[in-house]
Specification:
This protein is an alpha/beta fold and 368 residues long. The protein contains 13 helices and 13 strands.
Length: 368
């Protein structure tokens, strides 16, 4: 099982000081957070993609390529790659390039994006969001697997004899997660291709997450990729920790109250009761995160949001120390207990390459 962090890259005033970081400071802070993630033994760093204020990560592969040069082990991913407003040809090229630069330490998470004004900025219509996601990914899937592509669809110009370059590293496409909070069509899409399904798991109650994950698992099996238990599931989550739970609540409350995503809504107490948000001690984080398995089953990737809502970099790095030293080691051990033998590990470039070689060996044996 993989553990890591994801960021949405918001530039938010610190409510306790009133100071807003510059865009440069925020971008540099995201890099520092990624480097800290590797230092404390996490597996994954993922960045969102946004093209509107108050967010800065408009070019995820630029940032991830820079981080790749400064890390050795960390898997570099996205927590959203906008399959709707990006050209699938450019996605194919950008992430294949990143694959080579990072020696395979990369995957990506497809998402539709829910910010209406962004669609017309890129010449798209949000009312076609699901159709764009389906058509664009169908093309992207082929671009990584076919050396020469002929294609025609509704939303971009046709391709004739087109080869996307560079080709994927070792002939193995980057692993794709399809991220969704509430769209069953995206769970269906992930299942159809045998890809991973990532549920954000921040805003919604457990019964909603359970329904979405079960839909994906059942449809994964329906399309013949394996049993429901063999489907590849990832979950999000958000935590804020101090050794004393009362200190955590007191310190995080002003950030929660004005957070750009959920601020000015339910109280901190109501939100933590009704959603996966955990504000408290490391032990409370461990207990609540382990409970995710009760409604999502045995899953492969757990990412935490740690740097949202104007939290200063110093505080985020302290959070990562707690996560890496006191929380994740226990989660690794506990999640491994009673894990059925048939549940696969989280995919990596090495495992996908090995699987491809196994298939080739089997096919060669059949021909002989």
């Amino acid at each position: 099982m993989q553990f890591g962090i994801f960021t949405v890259g918001d530039v938010t005033p610190d409510p306790t000081t009133g100071r807003t970081p510059t865009e440069r400071e925020r971008i540099k802070a995201m890099v520092a957070i990624a480097l800290k993630a590797e230092e404390v033994g996490l597996d994954v760093f993922a960045t969102g993609e946004h093209h509107n204020p108050p967010f800065v990560p408009s070019s995820p592969t630029t940032m991830l390529g820079y981080i790749a040069a400064r890390t050795e082990r960390l898997i570099l991913s996205t927590s959203t790659t906008l399959i709707t407003t990006n050209d699938p040809v450019k996605i194919a090229e950008d992430f294949a390039m990143l694959q080579h630069l990072a020696d395979g330490r990369t995957d990506l998470m497809m998402g539709r994006g829910n910010t209406g004004p962004v669609y017309p900025w890129f010449g798209k219509d949000i009312r076609e969001g699901v159709n764009l996601a389906v058509e664009n990914y169908a093309l992207l899937h082929r671009l990584w697997r076919e050396d020469v592509v002929n294609w025609e669809g509704r939303f971009r110009t046709p391709l004739q004899g087109f080869t996307s370059t560079p080709r994927p590293l070792d002939g193995v496409a980057p692993f794709v997660w399809h991220g969704s909070i509430r769209s069953p069509e995206i769970a269906e899409q992930a299942a159809y291709y045998g890809d991973g399904f990532f549920h954000n798991n921040i805003f919604w109650p457990a019964d909603h997450t359970k329904r979405m994950v079960e839909l994906y698992r059942n449809r994964y099996a329906h399309y013949g990729h394996g049993t429901p238990e063999q489907a590849i599931v990832g979950l999000g989550g958000q935590v804020f920790m101090r050794r004393n739970s009362q200190d955590a609540v007191r310190e995080f409350r002003p950030y929660f109250d004005v957070a750009p995503v959920y601020g000015h809504g339910p109280s901190l107490e109501d939100f933590t009761e009704q959603t996966p948000l955990t504000v408290g001690s490391p032990q409370q984080v461990i207990e609540k995160t382990l409970a995710f398995r009760e409604y999502a089953g045995d899953y492969q990737r757990q990412l935490f949001l740690m740097d949202h809502a104007g939290l200063p970099l110093k505080t985020v790095l302290e959070q990562l120390d707690l996560l890496g030293e006191e929380v994740v080691p226990v989660l690794r051990e506990e999640f491994a207990k009673d894990r059925p033998a048939g549940v696969p590990d989280a995919p990596t470039h090495a495992s996908l390459l090995a699987g491809r070689k196994d298939i080739a060996t089997t096919e060669e044996g059949v021909r002989v």
